[in-house]
Design brief:
The complex is a heterodimer of chains A (253) and B (289).
Chain A (H helix, E strand, L loop, with lengths): L10 E13 L6 H9 L9 E13 L3 E5 L6 H9 L6 E7 L2 E5 L11 H11 L4 H15 L14 H13 L5 E5 L7 H16 L3 E5 L3 H7 L2 E6 L2 E7 H13 L1
Parallel strand pairs in A: 3-7, 3-8, 5-6, 6-7
Antiparallel strand pairs in A: 1-2, 1-4, 8-9
Chain B lengths: L7 E2 L7 H6 L1 H15 L9 H20 L2 H4 L3 H28 L1 H6 L6 H27 L6 H31 L2 H16 L6 H8 L3 H5 L2 H14 L7 H4 L6 H28 L2 H4 L1
Helix pairs in contact in B: 2-7, 3-5, 3-7, 5-7, 5-8, 5-9, 5-12, 7-8, 8-9, 8-12, 8-14, 12-14
Classes of the chains: A alpha/beta (253), B mainly alpha (289).
């Protein structure tokens, strides 16, 4: 099932020869740029490095994939390419169905709006329609355990409440493909357990999950397949426990 | 296993400003958010939208109308002045905020893919919401002065407003995208906005310019904001005048037949250029912000 060359109907994410370069230092003023142009473009204005080099992978619908690797191996970059926030320098990404990310939940929150307003704003940002949010609203509030504080401005929320509400909106967006980046560490322990149960529920319901986390035991319990990235390249793709073992072996060296 | 839904698509490849219409629910929420938080924690709230332009109007009226005695040559100078001011205010607020909109929403743009055109477009809508109270004040003043507009004048006013909105979105896309790469863009826009009030016949009347520019007067008329201001004068100020020598030269010749369509042409070209540049630059917004 992994890395199949034949792209079937059921494929949810397909990446081909992805390369992503990042610029380390960037000029921010016109003066520097004009001087650079006038002096015959001598030297490079910026330094570049490859965050991803030649990454290809297929994820079939309903698969649960853990993206593993040490810091700086390119995991978040790959996730951003799949969500469309970044565009690849080379290669292609294709996705099927609605993709939503539990990426840095609460990015679309506004502190001066009430919880209620933020549910609508964030729901819409994550791609929900008005009727979907209307239908999900009570369930979102219930899951978040915010209760009567829903009409309070979120700037008065504790950080835990804030994250709970944000997470609750995100899991209710009901996309076909879920991208999850280091989100499972939300709130207190009972809420964490609830989140993990919810994510397992999504996996059981046939959603495609694409998870980035450093909590290896947790991803191993949620996902079936593991992909190991190192310096922007896939070095292992297989059953999640084996990949976790490999990562542990490498980081012990 | 879930059944396959839909086609394979490339994420993050939008169709530009057309996508904004598809996301109009989100656009509506973004606009409402901005309006809600604009005057948060202030006692007067939305009243500020009346107080500020009235103050601006009073300053100009005292300095120009009374001290420089503009009101002698221009009957109903107060209405003449205010009709121009409200439209130019709409333009400056739209363009100023649209230019900053991408950088201001960097947290969102870096993390979630949305059609980025949403942000400049929503700022123009917010400015339109702040234009409304000013329009109410203008209409009140016009009615007191015995305003009797024709249906054509009203339609022309709507067209002039849309013209300014198109221009503001076009320039807003252009400078908003450029601002991600060069923050100088904000300062360039601030300068443009300083010039705009004086580059259109808001405080003075157009024959003064024609006298100086002579055959080159058409250059002055190529500015869509100038045309829109002149149309506003025709719609709001002109119908309050008694017929007489002053009203003969109230509007430049060929304003509706020639200059209004020409201004739409200019504004649409700027919109297309703005969209093309925005689309090209927006690919790297997330990593440049």
């Amino acid at each position: 099932m992994t890395m199949s060359e034949t792209v079937t109907d059921a494929v949810a994410i397909t990446c081909r020869n992805l390369r992503k370069k990042f610029v380390l230092r960037h000029t921010r003023s016109m003066k520097e740029a004009i001087v650079w142009l006038l002096t015959g473009r001598k030297g490079d204005l910026s330094k570049k490095f490859d965050a991803l080099k030649d990454v290809s992978l297929d994820v079939v619908q309903g698969e649960t994939v853990a993206l593993l690797g040490l810091n700086g191996s390119g995991k978040s970059t790959l996730l951003k390419l799949i969500s469309g926030v970044l565009q690849p320098d080379e290669g292609t990404v294709h996705t099927r169905g609605r993709v939503a990310g539990l990426i840095e939940v609460g990015a679309g929150f506004h502190h001066d709006l009430s919880g209620r307003d933020n549910v609508y704003l964030n729901g819409a940002i994550l791609g929900m329609t008005q009727s979907q949010i209307d239908a999900m609203f009570d369930s979102i509030v219930e899951f978040s355990e915010i209760g009567e504080f829903i009409d309070t401005e979120v700037k008065f929320y504790s950080s835990g409440m804030y994250l709970k509400l944000a997470f609750s909106i995100a899991v209710h967006t009901d996309p076909e493909v879920f991208l999850i980046d280091e989100i499972l560490a939300v709130g207190d322990e009972p809420f964490q357990r609830k989140c993990i149960a919810k994510i397992k529920e999504l996996a059981a319901a046939g959603k495609t999950l694409f998870v980035v986390s450093h909590d290896l035991d947790l991803v191993a319990s949620v996902c079936d397949r593991g992909i190991l990235l190192e310096h922007g390249q896939i070095i292992m793709d297989g059953e999640v426990h084996e990949v976790v073992r490999e990562l542990r072996r490498r980081s012990a060296d | 296993m879930a059944s396959s839904t839909g086609e394979l698509v490339q994420p993050g490849r939008g169709r530009g400003i057309i996508d904004v219409y598809k996301h109009r629910f989100l656009l509506q929420l973004l606009v409402r958010k901005e309006i809600k938080i604009r005057y948060r924690g202030s006692v007067l709230g939305l009243l500020w939208s009346y107080v500020k332009p009235l103050m601006q109007f009073s300053i100009y009226f005292v300095a120009l109308g009374i001290f420089l005695d503009m009101q002698r040559g221009t009957p109903n100078y107060a209405i003449y002045l205010f009709a121009g001011i409200v439209l130019v205010n709409f333009f400056t607020e739209s363009l100023g905020n649209a230019t900053r909109s991408i950088v201001d929403n960097r947290d969102l743009i870096r993390k979630i893919y949305l059609p980025r055109e949403l942000f400049p477009v929503s700022t123009v809508w917010v400015s339109a919401a702040h234009f409304l109270p000013q329009l109410v004040v203008l209409l009140g003043a016009c009615l007191i002065a015995g305003w009797r507009p024709s249906i054509w004048q009203l339609l022309a006013a709507v067209a002039a407003f849309i013209l300014v909105a198109i221009l503001a979105i076009g320039l807003g896309l252009l400078f908003g995208a450029a601002n991600v790469y060069f923050r100088d863009s904000e300062n360039i826009v601030d300068m443009i906005l300083m010039v705009v009030t004086w580059a259109s016949p808001v405080l003075y009347v157009w024959p003064m310019v024609e006298r100086v520019m002579g055959p080159w007067f058409f250059l002055y008329q190529l500015n869509p904001v100038t045309v829109a201001v002149e149309v506003f004068h025709w719609a709001f100020w002109f119908p309050t005048l008694e017929s007489g020598p002053a009203s003969e030269s109230a509007t430049p010749p060929d304003l509706i037949g020639l200059w209004l369509p020409a201004a739409f042409g200019v504004a649409l070209v700027i919109l297309v250029v703005g969209q093309v540049v925005f689309k090209k630059l927006s690919v790297h917004f997330a990593q440049e912000l």
